[in-house]
Design goal:
- This protein is α/β, with parallel strands linked by helices.
- The protein folds into 2 domains: 2-201, Formyl transferase, N-terminal domain (Rossmann fold, 3-Layer(aba) Sandwich); 206-317, Roll (Methionyl-tRNA Fmet Formyltransferase, Chain A, domain 2).
- 28% of the residues lie in helices and 27% in strands.
- It has helices at 10-21, 47-54, 68-76, 93-96, 119-125, 161-184, 217-226, 292-298, 310-317; strands at 2-7, 25-30, 35-37, 42-44, 59-60, 81-85, 103-107, 115-116, 130-137, 147-154, 200-201, 233-237, 240-250, 260-264, 267-271, 276-283, 290-291.
């Protein structure tokens, strides 16, 4: 098929490579403009741009798709379909109607659950046992179009946003290749979404990464996994932020929320509102991520000390 591809991060780049390997004709790649990133805030090309360059594909990086000149350019390509994956720009209705078979979106959830910007994080944070990929016929709404194909995958007990993203990236690539094959064979049966089951995956806020030790150990564990790799779940210890990168629920129920119960090389066991959480990897401001065994070499932590929340620190210093 003749395809216009629109996407930006690695999730989309994986799908673009799969379409190339499946011998589809990529007429044009659309991706976000290069932007500053990282500690040095150096201008960085998107993963999709790098993939397009690697395969010598035509590339555009418009700030918007509302330009009539751009729309004329897209129409002149006579594409069969536009494939969209984590592009980051809204497609105007005029663009949705340009390809003869419309625009297909690779969405990282089982629609209509978790429409919107952060479906992977919201699925982990909510404690969902499964998620997946939905290939959707795009319309003017926010992830409201007809479902063309769904593929499920389990959310493992230790899945982080990064590990689940990686699994869904591969599944999304496989799913769009399968969808286009079925579309070509006229074997797809679009299914309208059930609006009564819809919920929205709103953007993640950094403040959500702060741990509330009043929550259950299972909830705190989900916070740690949700905010790995970005921005990192955090708490306060001795008036300083401490990021927690890996933890697991352990048996038992003791102490007040935030109280350190056990300290040894295997981990720091902390009491939650219900249950216990063993912290296994941490990071101090400006430092490296360290296993608890390495962290304890230069940091003496004793049972009975407590992790606290920002509002607790504020009340202590009033």
């Amino acid at each position: 098929m003749k395809i216009i591809f629109a996407g930006t991060p690695i999730f989309a780049a994986i799908a673009l490579e799969a379409l190339i390997q499946a011998d589809h004709e990529i007429l044009l790649v659309l991706t976000q403009p290069d932007r500053p990133a990282g500690r040095g805030m150096k201008t960085v090309a998107s993963a999709v741009k790098l993939m397009a360059r690697q395969h010598d594909l035509a590339l555009l990086q418009p700030l918007t798709l509302k330009s009539l000149e751009l729309q004329v350019q897209l129409r002149a390509l006579n594409a069969d379909v536009m494939v969209v994956a984590a592009y980051g720009l809204i497609l105007p209705e005029a663009v949705l109607s340009i390809p003869c078979l419309g625009c297909l979106n690779i969405h990282a959830s089982l629609l209509p659950r978790w429409r919107g910007a952060a479906p992977i994080q919201r699925a982990i944070l909510a404690g969902d046992e499964e998620t997946g990929i939905t290939i959707m016929q795009m319309d003017a709404g926010l992830d409201t179009g007809a479902i063309l194909l769904k593929r499920n995958t389990a959310i493992a007990y230790d899945d982080t946003t990064q590990s689940l993203h990686d699994k869904l990236g591969l599944l999304g690539a496989q799913s769009i290749v399968e969808t286009l094959m079925l579309l070509r064979q006229e074997k797809l049966d679009p299914v309208m979404q059930d609006e009564t089951l819809a919920c929205y995956a709103t953007k993640i806020k950094k403040t959500e990464a702060e741990i509330d030790w009043q929550q259950t150990a299972e909830q705190v564990d989900r916070i740690v996994r949700t905010f790995n790799p970005n921005p990192g779940a955090y708490t306060y210890f001795r008036d300083r932020i401490l990021k927690i990168w890996r933890a697991r629920v352990v048996a038992g129920n003791a102490g007040k929320p935030g109280e350190i119960i056990v300290v040894d090389r295997t981990g720091i066991v902390v009491a939650c509102g219900s249950g216990l959480l063993q912290i296994e990897m941490v990071q101090k401001p400006g430092g490296k991520k360290l296993s608890v065994a390495d962290f304890l070499v230069g940091n003496d932590i004793q049972p009975g000390e407590c992790f606290t929340a920002l509002n607790y620190l504020a009340s202590e210093h009033d």
